[in-house]
């Protein structure tokens, strides 16, 4: 094996470009396409590696008896140290083909260098060839660009020539066309002059005309020529003016004859058109209409067709319209029935117009103009005749009676008619009405009614209010008459309660106004007009509600005043008999009952008044304000009017509440005078334990106040309630002070007084009036002047000097005021009081 390898090295040394044992083949094609270095390397070494594997297998068998511990990590064998050198000299190398592989790689490198040189040479030659070809190509492109520029110049010259030739041809064509037109015009003129001379005979002589003008099959041609002749003759007369020589007056004869002929021809065509219309021969009708369009643009034919429609000439159709909408003569009509009748009638009219539209489209050359005339005739004749019977505009001086519906009936009919007619206009617009402003024409039908509409609406609201108030007064009068057996005061109370303010009535006022506002929206298309009308209508509601609740409050005040008169009537002197006193006391009780009833009635009136105002405010916020906002200042002005209208009711309510306080205090004073005894606060010193219960007068007064003020607590709200109760508390405080000034107190009476004050204070605490609570607390402190010993009076008011003045008056009511010489003692303690 060594010899073969050595031989291989020698051959490689002598022949560096080849290897005999392992021939090396490198070709330039190996590097083309999908080149892989691993494949190239494998092809180079595969011939040597198999022999290496066989030698390695033999070596492994020769040393098979060597243990694993004798193999080093690098693959060499471990031998004993004393025989290492001899063993190394005897063992063969582990990789004997390494020299062959090394020689192989060196040869491969040399061949790769040779291949690279070959490729570099080829690349150089290719570059030279490419440069040469590029130079030739650039030269060719430059020559082609010159050729193309020349070609473009040739095309531009050709296009210019073609354009010039085309213009010349167009001019020639125009000249030829003009010449042909002139020739044709000259020919027609000659023909027309010939016909004109025929008409230039004696006036009214149409017997010698050409057959063209009498041939029914050439009517269209005859009509066209007659119109041309007529226009020519009229223009010639117009140019000559007045100063024409007598010889030229023949054209006037021609014009007269032409006019007569055209009239006769037009009448003949209209007769033929009518005959065809009765037979529903649309083709004949269309032919006649086309010919008639040459006479005044066909206006006579269009108007004649529309005028001969049955809906315009049949009286029975008009009577049927009236019966359908208004019902039979003498029957009561209602807006709902009228609305149904108008809907049916207008649907019938729309269907009729739709059918006529189909005929018009098939017959007339200008159908839009015919539709415009037809729709205008429908609105101005058929609809207007019906509206005149339906809407009889009432006088604002003499209003129609409510038994016949009043102004409201007229306004409802007007709204129904207007709304339904607007729907008819929209339906007719959908069917087709040419250039006719059908909406504007519809508006014009109602102008006479809309001009005074706001005044009628306000007058209607006033009429409704007056009628309702008359009904209420009649009911009240009837009730008063039915209670004739009742006493005057009781009868007045019943009548007053019957005329009490009703929230339901105010809601009815609002419903009237809502209906009126809906009509304002319907009739007012412009925001400014709408705002003006709405503001005026809402002002009517403010006047009605203000007057109604003010009258109701005034009636409640009258009841309070009547009760006050009854109280004054039974005020007695100091010296009366017992029988008279008993009768007066009984009458005073009745007067007190009347006052209490009037008080409750007024509180109910105030409560309903507040509820009514809330209803109006909510109605304004929800329905009125948005309609006023588009106009500057309208909303603020209405708010101011609302505040002004309610101020009258507020003034009446304020006066009535003052009367209520007077009524309550009068009864409190009567109870105190009748029930309070001198012994209540000056009980005898008989050894019996003092009574710590409130006095009978106090109990009666508190019970009365609790009973009567229950309606005030429920009827008043917010600041009104607080102000009323505060004022009543102050008056009660003052009245009690004045009342107690009439009595003398001993210590046990002072305790009884303090118990009364506590009872009064507990009651007025329900008023939620801090100032009133403070006054009654101070009363409790002042009551101590009747309880403490005389020598303790000086220290009693050290913490509350503000009540010293009232306390001095209380001290004078002590039973021992004179015996204890309290006047001198107080003057020494409080010099300023002397």
From TrEMBL:
<protein>
    <recommendedName>
        <fullName>Exocyst complex component Sec10</fullName>
    </recommendedName>
</protein>
<keyword id="KW-0175">Coiled coil</keyword>
<dbReference type="GO" id="GO:0000145">
    <property type="term" value="C:exocyst"/>
</dbReference>
<dbReference type="InterPro" id="IPR009976">
    <property type="entry name" value="Sec10-like"/>
</dbReference>
<dbReference type="Pfam" id="PF20667">
    <property type="entry name" value="Sec10_N"/>
</dbReference>
<dbReference type="GO" id="GO:0006893">
    <property type="term" value="P:Golgi to plasma membrane transport"/>
</dbReference>
<keyword id="KW-0813">Transport</keyword>
<dbReference type="GO" id="GO:0006887">
    <property type="term" value="P:exocytosis"/>
</dbReference>
<keyword id="KW-0268">Exocytosis</keyword>
<dbReference type="InterPro" id="IPR048627">
    <property type="entry name" value="Sec10_HB"/>
</dbReference>
<feature type="domain" description="Exocyst complex component Sec10-like alpha-helical bundle">
    <location>
        <begin position="221"/>
        <end position="824"/>
    </location>
</feature>
<dbReference type="InterPro" id="IPR048625">
    <property type="entry name" value="Sec10_N"/>
</dbReference>
<feature type="domain" description="Exocyst complex component Sec10 N-terminal">
    <location>
        <begin position="99"/>
        <end position="215"/>
    </location>
</feature>
<dbReference type="Pfam" id="PF07393">
    <property type="entry name" value="Sec10_HB"/>
</dbReference>
<comment type="similarity">
    <text>Belongs to the SEC10 family.</text>
</comment>
